[in-house]
């Protein structure tokens, strides 16, 4: 069976039954359809639609289970295994799990997908004719971009991360909207394949959206203040941070902007929980002891 057919859905005739399954033919070539890959309604001398793939031994097989993805179409597939120095395996709906090569994943493994995450992929053949899953490219996303309506502004939205770069994270929603999350609009960098829910903070001219994973200011202030308090308590009630501290050090330590830090610090000072003294922030409780 020619590798040109691997990864494709084609029509073939059922020509004979064997112990292990059915023999299919397209008039020129034959391929085996294992019993476990056949449906109950299969009949000899009938034309059926099958998907062609290779098993672990490199044998070309057919299945009557038609995956949502092939060499021409994209679809969401679930990550079922992560293998260091190799990539991740995804379930496309057939018995064989398909590899997404580490070459198509982010450089840093901390933002690799985890088991249970979902990737938007199509299929491709490598130089040896092996079937691989290929994450969607930015060009393909742009070609099929669904413009977001203005009414979406300030609304919550859920999507899956399909790309991670130094500039930020990119997501796709179920509706087909393309979103961008700037590093300043998140506390932690989401994984590729991770499902996130955020707030639409801008709608661009091309219909794409900017998304924030940070809570609204009032909610965020309370959350940030709790983080600072926990950090203070863990370090004996005194930390070398104040409202004039370096923004990069603040972000590195607390994963928030300097503006957010100052708002949270102001809240704690107003509540009488902390004071600033000699370039430090100090818990008032520790000063009374």
UniProtKB/TrEMBL annotation:
InterPro entries per record: CvfB_fam (IPR014464), CvfB_S1_2nd (IPR048588), CvfB_S1_3rd (IPR048587), CvfB_S1_st (IPR039566), CvfB_WH (IPR040764), NA-bd_OB-fold (IPR012340), S1_domain (IPR003029), WH-like_DNA-bd_sf (IPR036388)
Q: Which intervals hold domain S1 motif?
A: 154-214
Coiled coil (UniProt feature)? none
Q: Mind listing the GO molecular function terms for this protein? A: nucleic acid binding
Gene3D superfamilies reported in the protein's UniProt record: Nucleic acid-binding proteins, Winged helix-like DNA-binding domain superfamily/Winged helix DNA-binding domain
The cross-references to Pfam families, in alphabetical order and at most eight, read:
CvfB_1st (PF21191), CvfB_2nd (PF21543), S1_2 (PF13509), WHD_CvfB (PF17783)
So what family is this one in?
Answer: Belongs to the CvfB family.
Put simply, this protein is called S1 motif domain-containing protein
């Amino acid at each position: 069976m020619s590798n040109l057919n691997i990864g494709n859905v084609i029509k073939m005739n059922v020509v004979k039954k064997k112990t292990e399954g059915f023999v299919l033919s397209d008039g020129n070539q034959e391929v085996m359809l294992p019993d476990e890959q056949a449906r109950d309604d299969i009949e000899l001398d009938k034309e059926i639609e099958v998907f062609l793939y290779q098993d672990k031994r490199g044998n070309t097989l057919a299945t009557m289970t038609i995956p949502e993805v092939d060499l021409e179409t994209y679809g969401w597939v679930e990550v079922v295994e992560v293998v260091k120095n190799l990539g991740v395996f995804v379930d496309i709906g057939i018995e064989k799990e398909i590899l997404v090569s580490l070459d198509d994943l982010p450089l840093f493994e901390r933002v690799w997908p985890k088991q249970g995450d979902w990737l938007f992929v199509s299929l491709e053949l490598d130089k040896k004719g092996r079937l691989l899953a290929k994450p969607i490219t930015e060009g393909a996303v742009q070609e099929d971009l669904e413009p977001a309506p203005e009414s979406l502004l300030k609304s919550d939205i859920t999507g899956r991360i399909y790309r991670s770069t130094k500039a930020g994270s990119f997501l796709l929603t179920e509706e087909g909207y393309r979103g961008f999350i700037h590093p300043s609009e998140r506390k932690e960098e989401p994984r590729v394949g991770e499902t996130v829910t955020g707030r639409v903070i801008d709608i661009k001219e091309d219909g794409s959206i900017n998304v924030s994973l940070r809570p609204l200011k009032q909610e965020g202030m309370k959350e940030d203040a709790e983080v600072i308090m926990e950090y203070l308590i863990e370090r004996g009630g005194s930390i070398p941070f104040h409202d004039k501290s370096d923004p990069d050090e603040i972000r590195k330590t607390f994963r928030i902007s300097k503006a957010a830090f100052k708002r949270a610090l102001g809240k704690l000072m107003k509540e009488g929980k902390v004071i600033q003294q000699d370039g430090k922030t100090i818990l008032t409780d520790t000063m009374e002891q």
